[in-house]
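As the next step, I selected for study a record pairing a protein sequence with its backbone structure tokens, which the following lines show:
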Amino acid sequence: MLSGERERQGAIRELLQRIVEQFVAREGRGQTELRQFERLAGDLIDVTNSEIVATVAESLCRHPDTPPALIRRFFDRGGDCARISFEFAPSPPVADIIAKAAHGSAELAAAIARRSELPREAIGALAARDEGVVLYALAANRRIRLDTGALRALMYVARDDQQLARLLLNREDLDVDPESLFLAATRDERGRIVSAACRSAFVDRIGDSWAPGDEQLAGRLEALAAREERDAMISLVADALDARKSRVRKIFLDEGGEALALTYVALGMDLPTATRLFLASGKAFALDVHRVRALRALVSSTSRRAATRIVAAINGVGRFDREPIRRVAWREESSAQAGARRRGAADRLAPGVHRLANSDKV
């Protein structure tokens, strides 16, 4: 009995796949031919299991001539058939898309996040989910544009999720402050983020007055570094920054060293102290003369104001975690208009920039 049913399902599968392959091979069929295909394929779909139906669902959803009644059958099936339909069907009901994006299973929501077009409400609902598979699918989908609200929600999570942060950095529409994603950035991207922060710091009111660097803090860090008490160093820096130890730990574990260099600048360390701390860090870059020189140059060339912006964003402290995300041009130049605007601003700020560069570096 079971053997006979397996043979029957195997024959149905072979026939269904054959007629679907013939159907999707070309476009522009007449109405009579479409009705015949709908009737034959529909009868086969009705008498076979969902696993077999799922094998043809994607090709039919992608084909422009597939009768809508067949696609509705996929939705009604649920499971993999519904997931495939929500991802590839040309025009599912918008209300269903939004509802499933907000309340559907993680697998179904991830399928929706991969669609080539999505209503804004659905994007917002997906960005508000907490399942990694959904957020990764949304961030990786470069065919849709993420608005500021969706970017803010994703970047909030990405501060503690390097995979999500990397996906966001790969997007061309990431025209907002990427400072919170610094640890996931490449060396070149980090350089551009620092440059953008320096430009912003020239016109930002934050940090207009500074307390001098804490010499006692510097001495305690050096003593702990000499004893290789990394966890105690992390606790001390976290207290100084009013930040979570888990986030400060990521700065210390970062192999590039740029985040650590910026942290020392933000804390008011002078160049000799920062250099000694680099050399005692126990990281691979401490044994690389070129990397140590590069980190020293970063400390020397970055204003304390700019370093504090980035370190605060990495750790999620300060006003940067409360204010609406600002749109900035941190990549190469996004447009001629943006380039002209930056050049004009640079000309207007040049005198102040020179004074600040000479007075605000630590």
Summary: The first helix runs from residue 2 to 24.
